[in-house]
Write a structure and sequence with these properties.
With about 400 residues, the chain is an alpha/beta fold. The protein has two domains: about 130 residues, Aspartate Aminotransferase, domain 1; about 260 residues, Aspartate Aminotransferase, domain 2 (3-Layer(aba) Sandwich), CATH 3.40.640. It is about 40% helix and about 15% strand. The protein contains 13 helices and 15 strands. The longest helix has 21 residues. The relative contact order is 0.16. The protein binds pyridoxal-5'-phosphate. Pyridoxal-5'-phosphate binds next to helix 4.
Length: about 400
């Protein structure tokens, strides 16, 4: 198999500052290229002003910079309208907004919400708590032994009367993609709406919310090379317009009197208070960077690395890969366990060799419980990884076996 050269790693000061580190935890958070770091430095160091309220030039420029990112995000995910893009602090906040300001307003006792067992706690606990508080029914689509949701499961679980289906596009825990098109189609057939958790998909593949007919899509900036504390809630305008304001305060009002307030139009109505301006600017720079490389190039590079890693891991008979190894159902995330070794031990020993991986339940305890796997070791890739990273991992996984006294 072809190995990779460091075409893009030079853009990331992180790797210059950590020359010995093998970073395999981009599903948790990604490193940032100079282009993104410079965008926030320029704003903070030379152009800092609040937005949407100053009459002076600096504030107007900051406002223009901020608003331009909305248009970039719109194009990036194929939305029709800028006001369909709401800036939030991340996926978690976006989901909580939908749960409390859309579902909380429209669902009644006995209504049914369907999730998948693959969900990150962020796309599970808010729905579960709403279901408890409002006496809603909460159901799950389950997976087969390979981690895949089968067509029958979609057909049976998404039945007439289901109001909301909230589903990840790719499991952060085991890297398996969900059949998102089939789920959206079926949900619309039964008259429901779909909330798509794109935290692990939007950074890695082209998305078109209009042609995919997504009702809501949420994602985080820090998983696509932007800063932490910024994210997006996309919603069809007709749905966003029915949402109650999630927070009240400055910037989201039209007129305020002593006893009553009228609210601003979208998107401001759902963006109270001073936003994370530098975060939004970093998101714009990250989108520029992704567009500059090309999403296809990113996707192909990651899939090549995933395939390479799967091949190398499969040569170690004491490694058990969790979920499918069929690349067409996978994103750039691989979960595995070394026989007789706890994933935290694997991660600690790899850390000694300057290899950063994730271990544990990956904020998906119901999934782990369902799969009867208490924890896994997880590696994940982005544009700055290369086959050498995988080779180093493999060398040191052999060390893990030796350290723990199992031989090689
Ligand atoms: C699939 C998925 N959903 C939601 C989240 C939560 O994202 P954030 O912590 O950025 O809000 C994550 C984070 O790992 C994730 O992987």
């Amino acid at each position: 198999m072809e190995t990779t050269k460091d075409t893009y790693r030079g853009d990331f000061p992180f790797f210059t500052n950590n020359p010995d580190l093998v970073y395999l935890d981009s599903a948790a958070t990604t490193q940032k290229p100079t282009q993104v770091l410079e965008a926030t430095l320029t704003y903070n160091g030379a152009q800092h002003a609040n937005i949407h309220r100053g009459a002076y030039e600096l504030s107007i420029e900051a406002t223009n910079k901020f608003d331009a990112v909305r248009s970039k995000v719109k194009a990036f995910i194929g939305a029709s309208l800028e006001e369909e893009i709401i800036f939030t602090s991340g996926t978690t906040e976006s989901i909580n907004m939908i749960v409390s300001s859309y579902a909380g307003l429209h669902l009644e006792e006995g209504d049914e919400i369907v999730l998948s067992i693959l969900e990150h706690h962020s796309n599970l606990v808010p729905w579960q708590q709403l279901a408890i508080a409002r006496k809603l029914k909460l159901s799950y689509m389950y997976i087969n032994d390979l981690g895949i949701i089968e067509p029958d499961e979609i057909e049976v679980k998404i039945h007439d009367g289901v109001k909301i289906v909230a589903i990840t596009m790719m499991s952060n825990a085991i890297g398996v993609k969900t059949p998102i098109e089939a789920i959206i189609k079926r949900t619309h057939q039964v008259g429901g709406i779909v909330v798509v958790d794109g935290a692990q998909a939007v950074p890695h593949q082209a998305i078109d919310v209009v042609s995919m007919d997504m009702d809501f899509l949420v994602f985080s900036g820090h998983k696509m090379m932007a800063s932490t504390g910024v994210g997006v809630l996309y919603g069809k305008k007709a749905l966003l317009e029915t949402m109650a304001p999630y927070r009240y305060g400055g910037d989201m009002i039209e007129y305020v009197e002593e006893q009553v307030t009228t609210f601003a139009k979208l998107p401001s109505r759902l963006e109270a208070g001073t936003p994370n301006i530098e975060g939004v600017i970093s998101l714009g720079a990250a989108i520029d960077y992704i567009n500059h490389i090309g999403m296809d190039t990113i996707h192909n590079h990651e899939m090549m690395l995933t395939q390479y890693a799967l091949l190398k891991l499969s040569e170690l008979d004491y490694v058990n890969i969790i979920g499918t190894t069929d690349i067409q159902f996978k994103g750039p995330v691989i979960s595995f366990n070394i026989r007789d070794v706890h994933s935290h031990d694997t991660a600690f020993i790899l850390d000694n060799a300057h290899i950063a991986i994730r271990s544990g339940h990956h904020c998906a305890q119901p999934l782990m419980h369902y799969m009867k796997v208490p924890s896994t070791a997880r590696i994940s890739f982005y544009i700055y990884n290369n086959t050498e990273d995988v080779d180093q991992l493999i060398t040191h996984l052999k060390e893990v076996r030796r350290w723990l006294g199992y031989g090689s």
